[in-house]
Amino acid sequence: MTRKIYDGPSAALEGLLFDGMTIMSGGFGLSGNPESLIPQIRDSGVKNLTVISNNAGADGFGLWMLLQTRQIKKMIASYVGENKLFEQQYLAGELELELNPQGTLAERIRAGGAGIPAFYTRTGVGTVVAEGKPVEEFEGQLYVRETWLRADLAIVKAWKADTAGNLVYRKTARNFNPNMATAGKVTVAEVEEIVPVGSLDPEAIHTPGIYVDRIIKSTINDKKIEKLTERKREAA
């Protein structure tokens, strides 16, 4: 078996990065982001990136770092709100945006991993989402054709991995990560814990190791809270 465990982000990304490449980055809000790998991409200086992700990070966190350094040329995303830097760059014409309904984005990524070049969905019919795309009727309903998404590199964050690359995600940190792990030509996973083969319950594995090429133990595991909501304390 090819060795999949690498010493750190720099070693895991060596030889994979180039200008103009497409990168899929897991995460939803502040949960499940490959927060150890993104700073290494920033430090590499690679530019003109197309990045596929649910959102573009938050102030000072995640993909925001690549926006700050102007390394992202185009974002393919479903949610870009509450990111002032993203807003500034987009309105200034410095950043290209391909906005997707969230379910459509997830299915485009899943289709890329499954080898399905296109599919039809009712989501977006009659809106700007459908502009320039084929629309067909099925059983009396209109559907818009969407195409797959694939990437040169997928970076994902998991909770545990075994040395064969099988991954387990924890709760909502799973989000886009399993789909993206299947849709990259090369997939690099950062995980909180690495265990021997056979240590994971086969029924609990979310991403089979066949999809994972390189693994690192996370160097950053910040458990940030995007919106802190507190219940008022009841009177004594």
TrEMBL record:
The record's NCBIfam families line, in alphabetical order, gives: pcaI_scoA_fam
**Protein name, UniProt field:** 3-oxoacid CoA-transferase subunit A
InterPro entries the record matches: 3-oxoacid_CoA-transf_A (IPR012792), CoA_trans_fam_I (IPR004165), NagB/RpiA_transferase-like (IPR037171)
In its keyword annotation, does this UniProt entry include Transferase?
yes
Kindly give the SMART domains that the UniProt entry links to this protein: CoA_trans
Which keywords, in A-to-Z order, does the entry hold?
A: Transferase
Classification from the root reads: Bacteria, Pseudomonadati, Pseudomonadota, Alphaproteobacteria, Hyphomicrobiales
Task: Write one Gene Ontology MF term.
Answer: CoA-transferase activity
Q: Which domain of life is it from?
A: Bacteria
Q: Which Gene3D superfamilies match?
A: Glutaconate Coenzyme A-transferase
Transferase: present as a keyword of the record? Answer: yes
